[in-house]
Amino acid sequence: MPTLHDILSARPHVYRFLQPTPLHHYPTLGRLLGAEVWVKHENHQPVGAFKVRGGLNLVANLSDGERRGGIYTASTGNHGQSIAFAARAYGLQATIAVPEGANPSKVAAMEGLGARVVFHGRDFDTAREWIMEVAREKGGRFVGPTEELLIHGVGTYGLEIMETLPEVEVIIVPVGAGSGACGTAIAAKTINPGVQVIGVQSAQAPAMQKSWTTGTLTTAPMKTVAEGLATRVPFENTQRIMRELLDDFILVDDSAIEEAIRLLLEHTHNLAEEAGAASLAGALQLGGRVAGRKIVLVLSGGNISPARLASLLNS
Amino acid sequence: MPTLHDILSARPHVYRFLQPTPLHHYPTLGRLLGAEVWVKHENHQPVGAFKVRGGLNLVANLSDGERRGGIYTASTGNHGQSIAFAARAYGLQATIAVPEGANPSKVAAMEGLGARVVFHGRDFDTAREWIMEVAREKGGRFVGPTEELLIHGVGTYGLEIMETLPEVEVIIVPVGAGSGACGTAIAAKTINPGVQVIGVQSAQAPAMQKSWTTGTLTTAPMKTVAEGLATRVPFENTQRIMRELLDDFILVDDSAIEEAIRLLLEHTHNLAEEAGAASLAGALQLGGRVAGRKIVLVLSGGNISPARLASLLNS
Q: Do B146 and B217 form a contact (C-beta atoms < 8 A)?
């Protein structure tokens, strides 16, 4: 189980290339929720999402042999950009598998960061299994989405929350594979066991939440539009941590997430991707349970496309 | 004439409440411009724009008598939120005049920061003249838009650019009343006289640019949609500084600004208000003059409304 000590050890590797993100207070959002509302702006990161913290810590901790072989992963989203960013920072070659027909703007972003993007297979699972095999053949290092070194790195934003606002009472955090929620909970609960940490997932992709509630790893249908929350098969290591540390884990409907994107735009003038807005959707659903309290909403990422945003603003 | 020394003196007052904003490198924007492109993210400030730096420096430097009388200004935009933020930080009362029918969401934002908002008159000039009179009667401190203490404060972002990327070759900065362009030019040119600083204004509100080009204060028709660039009557003190320090001052069409908002959304996943996007519009227009160089675009603010954004994304 990762500890606050691991997060502290990750910190110099993260701050070598990044700076702490702001935690801003938004009075008009607070009026909406009847609470004191702060937003942790992980959307301000260079690749637009919290994951880059984990990538930098992982790459910093690779052995010389692993560095020479290069790193391999599969992603169509923030994980891929994070690994590409970290590889470039250390002058390593990153190879990222994406399914055929992957979003060209996301491919361009990874290539812009110096990664080699390889198209393979019809879907993400096919691409990932193939690239694991490629990494093995070539003596490269495959990077999975919930490795402990990633959790240690992303936990640095949880620590920043506790340092900036030690009196926080509730932290609401989106859950995809769970690394962000785990890192946050480890930092927050170690420093103040009284702070509540609540996970949020889309009701249209409830595998992690159902596994948490039932205590058994459970797959579930995955139909959400929220790419960062789209987990079909739950991850055992993050489940174990979340079962120990989360106070609650709730589901919000995709339609509530879309409304939260609009509200964040209006009240904070920040772009949120679907996963990033899930924390506000969760707070709105919790209602009376957060009223009158000091709450932090983790805006985990802002990578939404102009087309998607246009359709949201017109619906 | 303000100096780098003034900016350094402002810095502790600014950093008492704010942290440096990121300067991010965007490879895909760079491909578009054939240059190495960095964006200075003043849209990440707590009130969404660079001006808050100036407000904090001004309020920190008030005398006890001025603090007791409270501060008064007129604004429907970022200046008002900046003054409200700074007043709250120091526990002072801010009174902000807006014209009747002012945008309710901007009024709510200023009230959320603890300011008293007073509606008066049909337009901004009427509201401003009235509140100057009120301040005089009540013994309060009226705050104008281009006071030197504001320039010293906003100059801290120019200094951050030079500290983070000392090898920068061109900085492109939007001009409204000119405080941002002045602060940037003072910091940049003092540290490296070889860096080019280029101002950008909307062709639909060219008063400052025409005054700069002709060497004579010149009013001009003001029809721009870019609120932050909407200066009808030029300011003498910022003109004087810009005449000495800007390498060029160009006009971009409102339609080019709108396209730049869309491009920033796509390539950086950041919201820009019209003024904030003018720097990218300027770089695109400069074309060959920035090709192959290291350039910084100042994204001065992100306060655009959801309705305006929706209409932009659909045009």
A: no
Asked if pLDDT for residue A227 goes beyond 80, the answer is no
- Residue A196 pLDDT greater than 90, yes or no: yes
Q: Does B265 contact A43 at a Cβ distance shorter than 8 Å?
A: no
Number of alpha helices (DSSP H) and beta strands (DSSP E) in chain A: 14, 10
B43, B268 Cβ separation under 8 angstroms? no
Mean pLDDT of B69-89: 94
Say whether B44 and A44 touch across the interface (CB within 8 A): yes
Element (DSSP H or E) covering residue B9: helix B4-15
d(CA A246, CA A239): 10
Statement: residue A122 has pLDDT above 90: no
The residues pairing with A201 across neighbouring beta strands, listed in sequence order, are A251
Mutation target for A interface from B88, B163, B269, B304: give the one with most A CBs within 10 A: B269
Beta strands in A126-233 (DSSP E): 141-142, 170-174, 196-202
List the single residue in B with minimal CA-CA distance to A42.
B44
Whether the per-residue pLDDT at A11 is higher than 90: the answer is yes
List CB contacts (< 8 A) between B27 and chain A. Answer: 109, 112-113
Write the single-letter amino acid at A255: S
Task: Please tell me which residue of chain B has the smallest CA distance to A47.
Answer: B268
Domains of chain A and CATH, by start? 4-49+148-313 (3.40.50.1100), 52-142 (3.40.50.1100)
Amino acid identity at B315: S
